[in-house]
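Schema walk-through. Below, the input block comes first and the output block second. Nothing else is stored per chain. Lengths vary across the set, and this one has 257 residues.
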Amino acid sequence: MNRYRSVLRFLVYLGLCGAPACGAVITADFANWQQVGFFDPNYFAGIGLVFPVDPSMPTFTTTSINGQYSLNALPDSLPGPGGTYEGSWHVLGQFTPDQATTLAVSVDQVTQGTVQYTLSALDGSSNVISSVTQQATGPVTLDLGILPAGASFFRVNESFVQSPNPFVKTIDFAVGKVTFTSALADPVYPAPFIPQLPPPTGTAPEPATWSELLVGLAGFGLWRSRSARTSPGYTASLSSQGNSSKLAALSSGSIRM
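--- output ---
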């Protein structure tokens, strides 16, 4: 029976895409964005995936969960009076210029607990053409398989179920990978984004010239001469010569050598 189902799925796929297959399987892996912080929503444009910007929402950012760089979900609503988000979370992506015919999204939660995910494939008018819902307590891949029609958008929604911490009422999540099939003729995968260290603010000192060295040596000799004159031995020599007035002046600091 499973064999016949596989053959039927394959025939549906050929009918949807046309023979031969309509495109290659493409994976947008956020591990390529090798930093935590700001994320460019057009980073995967070369492989046919962008993330629409909502001016009312925070900017896109990435996080690291167990060493995997992932795209943080956005809140469904603005923060409350305390500046914290207490509602559910989502990620919305757009396939452009070509639609997706298969879709799977890997997600993981940032905070410990149980959540319910819903992955939806949407057409150009934002109508749901396929969806799947699954509960999870850790990383999971939401797989829609072959779509009944081409998808222009996808959306992952998350809702809170429970947490071991009674004070936690919301659990945010992040997307690690988006895998889809597209008719894009020549997908151009982006180069890994490697953060550049800022240039040093100071400059190394230049080597001293011979004239500067000679001036330094002369100054060192003058310092040694003054040190010798104010040493106990020199003071004793002045006393032995009967120069008591100058000795008193040196001791009080009223004479500068």
